[in-house]
Each structure stands twice: as structure tokens, then as C-alpha cells.
């Protein structure tokens, strides 16, 4: 078996890369350890930056996003019993779409299948060979048989738990990490929207976020102990906590409904450098993680593969390898910007058990600043919609 680009992982990074390469006439094979049903139903994030929306639309996979996603022109910050709006479109000329990641996955899988792209689910025992030699090879098992896939390039899009990152020699790698002492408790509920836009709430009891999935299904989160168990939380206890954190003195209330999904996720910031070695390149969660507060995870995966697909195009169509050589450096600029933004928003919005009363007042002062100073609001909005120059 042979291909030009061997891609490990069918998350947003791997699938979109394969789609973008196909549009350039570059051949790829995607290898995924889980089943199609699993990847199409795993609940993850849901905010698409303007640039992500535009790329999906321009490359022919944005139709359902446009029809079923919710276009938002702003979001709300709730603190000290009040709500203040960040008007993204007024501040940046751009917007976001709330559209679940697994719906993006469905659209990308459908496009790859329609184009008869090579996409193998349920592979196992994936290992990489000769990544800095002349015949980079992915060895794996599929439907009971062992295979060797020879590639020009191997792209590790296998998420935070994947195997690709560890194929870069440790002596050449440097990892940066911060683990937060809190997590997010996420729910899906059958209910009408509580608000026209997302609400990020800072409260003494902890952070909460009101998001949406459709006119009938809402997604909400609240800060929790990452070691807590969903079984400790009855529906009544969850609604009481959300009311306490999100309802405002100005009369806004969270709308309750039947909760049909509960999960707890830990939070960390992580960057692994370098993102390339020989003929191996990393993209998406395989190389970096952000806490979900800034809604950057999916969008960073998209920006990595946009840079990488352009570098591969330049290699195959213009016979130049400079863009490939500088891939890691180019991608890391946006990654570090998003790491800082996500960290900043996380620190501003969450209850920090080690924060002194002085530092808690600084959180409020910062929220007052971004909701009253136009230049501070522009900076936040540019980061949120992904319009910041890096
Ligand atoms: N072999 C094949 N596939 C693998 C392997 C392996 N050894 N290890 C992991 N995978 C698959 C996973 O099953 C998963 O489907 O790689 C895929 C990685 O996908 P994601 O974790 O979604 O990562 P990525 O495509 O980088 O997208 C990042 O996901 O978690 C969110 O916030 C994050 O939105 C961001 C997005
Ligand atoms: C979501 O809808 O899942 C969501 C929205 C905004 C975030 C994180 C997650 O910052």
C-alpha cells in the first residue's frame, strides 16, 4: 500500500486535512482507531470561529452548518449579578457559529466518502517507521490483517492520547503544561434556549456557561471538582447550581428541561514542540490542548491543517519545501496566542481556590474593564472570533 500523505486520526484535524488535500489533487489515507458511529456521536465542543466557518463553506462542507448551526454576533459576560454583552460583529466585523463538533465530523466524513477517499475505521496496533528516512511507513492492523502503508509524509492527527507525538525523539521535544485544579460538568438538556447568545458567568460558587445545540437542545457547563462523579449530581441539584451561578439580578433565569447527558472533563493547557520531525508532522490536539473557556480547541486544529495543507500543496505543486520546513514555527504563533487567550479567560472567569480576596477583586476589575473599555473589548472579541494577527 502506498499514498502521498498518511493521516492518523479522523478527528476534525485529520478529516479536514484529507479533504483539503483532495481538493488540491493530493492523495491521502486516513486511519482511525474508533468506529464511524463512535466518532460521529462523541460530544465535544461547539464554537466555530469566522475563519473556520469560511473555510468549511469555501471548501463545500458548510451547507448543514449554515442551515442548522446558530450564527451568533455576540456573547454575554455575567458577573456581580449583571450581564454585559460583547458585540463581536460591532467590534470585529465577524461572527461565530455554534455547531457541534460531531456534526462537523459527520459533514467531513460524508464528503470523504462521497469522493471515495480512503478512510479506514477500527484500525489497531498503529506504529510509525522510518519517519526521518526515505520510506516513512505506517504499520497497522485492519480487519484482522497486518498492513504497511508507505507514505511521502505522515501526519499525526491522533489527538492528545495518540501515538504520533511520542515518535518524535524526546531529546528534540519540549513540552509545556499547566493542569487546572478544576473541571467542567457538562449537560445536554431538552429545553428551549435560556438566552439568544452564549453566557459566560463568573460567580463566587464557580464558573458557568450557557451554550446551545438547537432550538430544543441546550448545552450548559459549570465548574466542578475534576474528580467529582456525575452520579453525585441529581437533576435538581444541577439546576439549583446553574440558577445560583447564572440567574441575574436583572431578571434573567436559566430555563430548565430534561437532562439527558452528563459528563465531567478535566482542564489543562499543553503545548508540545516541535510539531515536526523528518517526514512526520503533528496537527491539532496531538500537539496542543487548551482549556475550553476560549472555545479554541477545534479552531486551532483547523488552523494547523490549513497551514499544513498549504505547505503540502507548495511541496507537490511548486516544488518548494520551505513552507513545510517552517510549519511548526508558523503554526505555533497562533497556538501560543490561543493558549494565552484561553488561559487568560480561564483565570478571569473561574473560582480559584488559591486566590486571595485581592486577586478575586482583580477578576471583577478585569471583567469591568473588558465590558466598558472599547479597546479592551475589541481585543477580547478579536481573540474570540480568531481575527487577531499573529
Ligand atoms: N490510531 C488511529 N487513530 C487514533 C489513534 C491511533 N493510535 N489514537 C487516537 N486516534 C483517533 C481518535 O480516536 C480520534 O478520533 O484520533 C482522533 C483524534 O481526534 P480529536 O481528539 O478530535 O483531535 P483533533 O482532530 O486534533 O481535534 C481537536 O477535538 O477535543 C477536541 O477541543 C478539541 O475541538 C478540538 C478537537
Ligand atoms: C459548547 O457549546 O460546547 C461550548 C461553547 C463555548 C465554549 C466551550 C464549549 O467556550
TrEMBL record:
EC number assigned by the record: 1.14.13.2
GO MF terms, alphabetically ordered: 4-hydroxybenzoate 3-monooxygenase activity
Sorted UniProt keywords: FAD, Flavoprotein, Oxidoreductase
InterPro entries: FAD-bd (IPR002938), FAD/NAD-bd_sf (IPR036188), HB_mOase (IPR012733), RIFMO-like (IPR050641)
Uppermost EC category: oxidoreductase
Domain FAD-binding as annotated: residue spans: 2-341
PANTHER family linked to this entry: P-HYDROXYBENZOATE HYDROXYLASE, TRK SYSTEM POTASSIUM UPTAKE PROTEIN
Protein name in the entry: 4-hydroxybenzoate 3-monooxygenase
Organism from which the protein derives: Paraburkholderia sabiae
Lineage: Bacteria, Pseudomonadati, Pseudomonadota, Betaproteobacteria, Burkholderiales
Gene: pobA
Amino acid at each position: 500500500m502506498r499514498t502521498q500523505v498518511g493521516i492518523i486520526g479522523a478527528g476534525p484535524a485529520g478529516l479536514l486535512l484529507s479533504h483539503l488535500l483532495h481538493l488540491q489533487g493530493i492523495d491521502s489515507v486516513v486511519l482511525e482507531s474508533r468506529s464511524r458511529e463512535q466518532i460521529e456521536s462523541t460530544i465535544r465542543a461547539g464554537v466555530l470561529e469566522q475563519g473556520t466557518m469560511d473555510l468549511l463553506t469555501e471548501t463545500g462542507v458548510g451547507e448543514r452548518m449554515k442551515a442548522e448551526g446558530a450564527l451568533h454576533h455576540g456573547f454575554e459576560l455575567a458577573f456581580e449579578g449583571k450581564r454585559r454583552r460583547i458585540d463581536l460583529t460591532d467590534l470585529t466585523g465577524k461572527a461565530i457559529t455554534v455547531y457541534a463538533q460531531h456534526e462537523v465530523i459527520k459533514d467531513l466524513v460524508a464528503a470523504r466518502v462521497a469522493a471515495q477517499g480512503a478512510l479506514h475505521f477500527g484500525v489497531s496496533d498503529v506504529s510509525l517507521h522510518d519517519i526521518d528516512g526515505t520510506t516513512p511507513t505506517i504499520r497497522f492492523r485492519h480487519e484482522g490483517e497486518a498492513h504497511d502503508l508507505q507514505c511521502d509524509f505522515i501526519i499525526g492527527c491522533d489527538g492528545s492520547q495518540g501515538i504520533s507525538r511520542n515518535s518524535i525523539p524526546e531529546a528534540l521535544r519540549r513540552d509545556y503544561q499547566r493542569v487546572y485544579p478544576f473541571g467542567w460538568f457538562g449537560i445536554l438538556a431538552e429545553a428551549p434556549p435560556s438566552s439568544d447568545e452564549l453566557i459566560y458567568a463568573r460567580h463566587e460558587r464557580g464558573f458557568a456557561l450557557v451554550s446551545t445545540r438547537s432550538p430544543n437542545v441546550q448545552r450548559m457547563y459549570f465548574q466542578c471538582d475534576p474528580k467529582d462523579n456525575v452520579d453525585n449530581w441529581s437533576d435538581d441539584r444541577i439546576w439549583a447550581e446553574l440558577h445560583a451561578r447564572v440567574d441575574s439580578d436583572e431578571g434573567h433565569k436559566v430555563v430548565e428541561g430534561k437532562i439527558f447527558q452528563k459528563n465531567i472533563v478535566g482542564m489543562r493547557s499543553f503545548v508540545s514542540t516541535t510539531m515536526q520531525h523528518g517526514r512526520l508532522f503533528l496537527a491539532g490536539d496531538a500537539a496542543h490542548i487548551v482549556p475550553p473557556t476560549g472555545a479554541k480547541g477545534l479552531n486551532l486544529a483547523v488552523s494547523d491543517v490549513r497551514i499544513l495543507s498549504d505547505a503540502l500543496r507548495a511541496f507537490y505543486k511548486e516544488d518548494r519545501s520551505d513552507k513545510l520546513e517552517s510549519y511548526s514555527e508558523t503554526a505555533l504563533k497562533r497556538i501560543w496566542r490561543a493558549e494565552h487567550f484561553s488561559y487568560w479567560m480561564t483565570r478571569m472567569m473561574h473560582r480559584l481556590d488559591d486566590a486571595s480576596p485581592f486577586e478575586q477583586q482583580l477578576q471583577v476589575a478585569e471583567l469591568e474593564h473588558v465590558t466598558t473599555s472599547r479597546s479592551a473589548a475589541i481585543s477580547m472579541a478579536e481573540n474570540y472570533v480568531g481575527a487577531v494577527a499573529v
